[in-house]
Amino acid sequence: MTTQMTRASAPRTVTGKSSRPARGSAAHVGRPGFAWAVPATLFFALFAIAPLVMVGVLSFMSWNGLSEPEFVGLDNWTRIFDDPVMIQSIWLTLLLTLLGVALQTPLSILLGVWAAGEQRNRAVLSAIYFVPLLLSSTAVSVLWRALLDPNFGVPAQATWLFGDGNLFGKQSTAIGVLAFVSTWQFTPLHTLIYQGAARAIPQVLYQAAEIDGAGRFRQFFHITLPQLRNSIITSMILMVVGGLTTFETVLILTQGGPGTDTTISAYYMYQKAFKSFDFGAGAAIALVLVVAATIISLVVVRLSGYDKMRGTMEGMS
Amino acid sequence: MRRRPNYLAGAASLAWLFIVGLPLYVMLAATVQSRSDYSKGGPLSWPEGFTLDNFTSAFDEGFGEYYLNTVIVTVAVVGIVLLLVPPLAYAIVRSRSKVTSLVFRLFLLGLAIPAQAVIVPMFYLISEAGLYDNLIGVILPTAAFCLPVSALVLSGAMRDISPELFEAMAMDGATPRRMFFQLVLPLSRGGLSTIVVFSALQAWNGFLFPLVLTQSDSTKVITLGLYNFQTEHGINIPGLLAAVVLSMVPVLLVYLFARRALVQGLMGVGGK
Amino acid sequence: MRTRVRFSRVLACGVALAAALTLTACGGNGASAGGDDKIHVLVYGDATNKVEKAVVDKFNKTSKVKVVLDTIPGADYQQKLQTIINTPQAPDVFFNWGGGSIQPFVKADLLLPLDDFIAKDAKLKDAFLPSVFDSAVLDGKAYGVPMRGTQPVLLFHNKKVLADAGVQPPKTWAELLDAVKTLKAKGITPIALGGGDQWPTLMWFEYLYDRIAGPELFKKALSGDKDAWASEDSKKALGMLKELVDAGAFGTNFDSVKFTDQGSPTLLARGKAGFELMGSWEYSTIQDFDKAFAEKSLGYTAFPSVPGGKGDAAALVGNTNNFYSVMKKTKHPEAVAEFLKLMYSDDFVKQQLAIGNLPTTTNTEQYLDTSASPAFSHFQFDLVKKAPTFQLSWDQAYPQSAATPMHQAVQQFVNGRLDADGFIKAMQALPTE
Asked: ipTM strictly over 0.85?
């Protein structure tokens, strides 16, 4: 969740800055100096930038936590890209991320548009919708692991639906569970984004369309969706980056299993570092994750021309 | 003007109600049953008896202490964020210094650093500093990873303060310090409440840092308590789910009393 | 290299400074600080902790230096231990499995040889069965004192389920296969398996390999001889295991079931499964949540013999015992020595027996009748006494870095993702040092 939200504001504020450079013609007096930014910058440099630099250094070293680290050149890098489990983990990460986008986007658009309406019962219902947001990823995973226990959870009582309940024992169902649980957890967040955006669509647009005799579907595809474009991008960046860094869910629900069948990259990194004590390889995988997250966010922003369309965003609040 | 009902979205919302509601029902029903009643009736049945034992036994398992630890972490993280971010955002928005715009880029870059990526050196740093298995060792990195989003949200809020107000104060000869306390802080209350809720949620729900940086009961936070409960007594489903319910109670209270701030904090975006 | 270390020292100082600032900023919060007159003892978190707690309480009553007992839940113990052992926050004394599990620490020169302690109090060595004590002796030096019970892996069963199905506890592999068929026909999962944890599955491999090839095959493999895994005996063992899986012995959802969360023992206790192959701690685990069942209906036998195999039918697999090892950097070696002496005390032995563990002290035999289940204790004791060999669990014998890939290979062979050749390749790829 952390990083999932984290990413959202990046492009937005970037654009916010670029669209309003050097504000106004204010006098040069009364402006704060750099000193105001120093404490936060030092703190952040110490706890985020410095460790990131150390990850970079560590990815060229061999270290098991016991002896002194040794410099080994590109060894970790060649090893992780020769490692079938690592390659598989990249595909699994992509698959889970895409599944998340494919499941959550249409659902949360529909729900968001619906929840933006005005009827009274919606307020009550949408309050229930958002309950998953109140749970931490840990709590959500623990909840679903308990609910889906084959012998003591729901599958035991609903064999018509779950069969033998071996949800965590097959790759297809284990992936299905992971995709479903993240959908359950995060759809409300995306619904909120779309709800806010849908409320901001000027009603005049619909009234005009109605006069032109456009039906519900035409209205949806020609007015609602285009108007939601920026929210769709925000929400997708959230999903993609969240998908790349999913961790608790895998640790608690499947532990990367059966075998290595749900070992996604973020979990594989943890496993390499803290289970096999191959900190060098763990660091290399960590860097891959950082680079992937940055590139994907940038690509989505560029492709969508998002950085040039701040205008419609102003309505969303 | 009345619009026709949207059947598709209505159907999706009903389906979603079921998908969200059923697990929540199962969860609540299980927590008020004894373990034997639960295993007799199964998760989908109407609860036979009623007991609060699961909640009291969660506290016997140490949940009270975990609560306290989590509160300490949360308060400290929010404190650090409130101490560091407003001056930072103020500088980002108002400073003309080139260094400040570099700093701003640094924080933008920071958005792309997932906590997982730095966990190995973080562990090394914290343990070298003698803070392993100490709540401070959890507080510091958690707060650091709240900074980028908080800085962006709050600087967004500060940008919306009209430049004329600054100019007016500058005419009166106000120092940057006075502007900060008399103008900027009062006018960015919305942004401040968003970063408070955002960082509080990060701290309350944090898992990876406590997982790697603590080990004993005296430093356990709720998420870790849940995880350990699950790995040790995973099939004591009523007890486990009672612990899950307990973990969300404080967030639920915030939701009931400060829904708007919570929603904005959750999104960590659009918090204007 | 040097600069890197210095760089991180500087960073660490920065962290400490930031911490100090936080402390003053929030007026000092309740975070725990390590006092100087304490010994931290780290143990594997499970049902046996109540005995360890009792021992610690007893020790603290008389000692000036207090022992603090820290537990880490079983599933995470080994990894957490290695994570912290070379940091300032390492415990003074920690639980381990002896042998390979402490070898890297000995290599890194982190452990205190206990020979000085033993010189002062010979009972720290002589009070324990030599064969057990020796599994924590490395390079001729003692590094551990046995602190729990010996844990052979046994075939447990639900007496009532077997009686209802008219099945006798199997003595041979063929009888086990028959029992599986009968139970399956009755709609009962024949054998409970916590496949989600992976190591319970490994136990089947350990016994079958031992019965069919004898203990030498594994010894060879561990010494780096990759051909051992490709031998005829290895293939035969895999074939027999496959036959058992294909007969439906473990049902179909075993990979969704875990032992550590009490899933599989509950299946056995509730009569949903007939057998479970598990370490002797199964007894204390079940006793913890269903005392009546543990005492009345929990049956146990040795692993069945495999006619034609090279291994001895009396040979055992499992953990010889758990040990307390001592960190070199402990500030209170005398207090630690005093604490370790409790591990052979009569009270301790009785308490272990009372929860179904079988300590490995020389005075254990005289207290067997005071145990939670004298029959179970006698049975185990005789088994251990008669066993010609006692194979340490594979995942404890191999280096820690081999554990994850080994567990995965085992799980994938049993769920069909790997065939015999694939499994052999995976085992050959394991690091042996």
From this structure: yes
CATH for the stretch A91-262:
1.10.3720.10
CA distance B250 to B200: 11
Cβ <8 Å between A153 and B237: yes
The answer to whether the Cβ–Cβ distance between C83 and A65 falls below 8 Å is yes
User: Contacts of residue B75 in chain C, CB cutoff 8 Å?
Assistant: 26
**CB contact, 8 Å: A181 with chain B?**
no
Q: Which of B75, B126, B232 sits opposite C73 (nearest CB)?
A: B232
pTM, two decimal places = 0.85
| Interchain CB distance below 8 Å, A69 and C263 | no
Spell out which chain C residues touch chain A, with contact meaning CB-CB distance below 8 angstroms. 1, 4-5, 8, 11, 14-15, 18, 79, 82-83, 85-86, 104-105, 107-108, 110, 195-196, 198, 251-257, 263, 266-267, 272, 400-401, 403-404, 408-409, 411-412, 415, 417-418
Q: Which domains can be identified in chain C, with CATH numbers? A: 38-150+320-362 (3.40.190.10), 151-318+393-428 (3.40.190.10)
CATH number of the domain within which B242 lies: 1.10.3720.10
Q: Tens digit of pLDDT per residue, chain C (433 long)? A: 444 445 555 566 566 666 655 544 443 333 334 446 889 999 998 878 889 999 999 999 999 999 999 888 777 788 888 888 888 778 999 999 988 888 889 988 999 999 999 999 999 999 998 878 888 888 889 999 999 988 999 999 999 999 999 999 999 999 999 999 999 999 999 999 999 999 999 999 999 999 999 999 999 998 889 999 999 999 999 999 999 999 999 998 899 999 988 889 999 999 999 999 999 889 888 988 888 999 899 999 999 999 889 999 999 999 888 999 999 999 999 999 999 999 999 989 998 888 878 898 888 888 888 887 888 889 998 898 888 888 889 988 888 788 889 999 999 999 998 999 999 999 999 988 7
Chain A, window 184-243: residues with a beta carbon less than 8 angstroms from a chain B beta carbon:
184, 187-189, 192-193, 196, 206-207, 210, 216, 234, 241
Q: Would you call B95 and A37 a contact, using CB atoms and an 8 Å cutoff?
A: yes
